[in-house]
Amino acid sequence: MYVRYQINMVSLAIINTWLLTMHGPGLGIVENGTLAVENETIVYAGPSDRFNPSNADSIIDGTNHVTMPGLVNTHFHSGMTLLRGGAQDMPEIEWMNRGVGPLGAHVNHDDSLIGSKLAVVEGLRSGTTTFAEYGANVARLVENVYQPFGVRVVATESINEISSNRSHLKPSDLYEFDPLKGDAALKQAEELFENFRGEDLVSCMYGPQALDMMSVELLTKIRDRAVFRGSKMHLHLAQGERERLQIQGRYGADVSTVSLLRQHDLLGDFLIGAHCHDTDAPERELMADARVSMASCQSSISMIDGIVPPLSHYVEELGGTAGLGTDQAPGPGNHNMFREMRTASLLAKITHQDPTRLPAWKSLELATIAGARVLDLDDIIGSLEVGKRADLITINLHHPNLSPTVSRPFRNFVPNLVYSASGAEVDNVFINGRQVMAGGKLSFIDESSLLEDADERASLIFARAESDWRNAGSMLVRHVDHGHL
User: Fold this and answer.
1) Hey, how many other C-beta atoms are within 10 angstroms of the C-beta on 430?
2) How far is the C-alpha of 241 from the C-alpha of 309, rounded, in Å?
3) Could you tell me the pTM of the whole model?
4) What is the pLDDT confidence band of residue 2, given thresholds at 50, 70 and 90?
């Protein structure tokens, strides 16, 4: 005999829905489930016939819907979104200095705010509720985008010691370090923690950009600060030939990023390594043993480097902790975690020539509870559990690309969410119990005006940058001259 729950105060109940709780055995699937929320907290997640929703202030009929945790983007640069489409289909060695650099130099603060708004709106529309925002002066984005929108953010201040003018450098030329620049960025990161202390939707991390962009001494100082604060440092780690040339040129031909980190006790559970595609299997084993988390941006690194990041090996063979990220729009072109789940699963199968690699249920874990674990937020988000914050989405299964839906002998919507969904099927988004999208409409912004502003600003940026971009001489210049773009 079932106990029928009666909770006196319920602000929201989603009834008659498929619950994908990401808690308990498997994915914690509940057929004909109800999710109840009071203010910002989940107070019930289970079968509908055990819960009486009559006292709920708001009731959503979840028939033909999946209700699941909001998606977690573990590595996200939103400020360059107005450069979308500006640095694709070019050699990795050119991408930063000759591709993005000449364009990015003409992006001003107001441009970056509009780009950030556009990226967050795109992410929200496709079900992302937590963004690990990584950038310089990230407090400005928190204050002008995330807090007004009511979106959960892990604010990560980027720290490096190198000059921003690098377009003239050859791949083998070593960057010049400026310790004063690094110290100033670290101070800004410290201020981030102080300014947002106690903010419910804002947590903070340190963002040492990459080991080729700073001294070991500065990185060690950042580690100590992260450990002191009980936070983490989020590092672009072994991210390709460009970094490898810098590390070998500075520290020796037999030195790699991972070996240098190990030598200086910089591998540990305080570290999130983004990308990691220039690591070998023994190095990844060292990382996993040290409990380093991986933020894997499958689409971005495939686009920029032509390499599949070693996500499947790290998670499925080594038992490492990892989540998914979208990186920046000039790389993969999008901030859509459904596309990221699909890409990750397909690339794993191709790389290992094994169609059982990174199955749909594993990709869903990476985008929810595992991503929350990477960001040290799994105690409050990432699964639908009583006591956790109500960060959740509903997905309408009545779309041509998700139909038909069957439940016997198995639930086909699980693979369909990963391999067939586009993200456009997300119709309701809640963050901390507050509904930010209802029926596919965002409640806090005029999207049409945002898109018009983004188009106008991007046109001006590209026009201002044209001369510098041409002088940088990337492969894309020849493609334009040949009429390909």
Assistant:
1) 25
2) 14
3) 0.96
4) very low
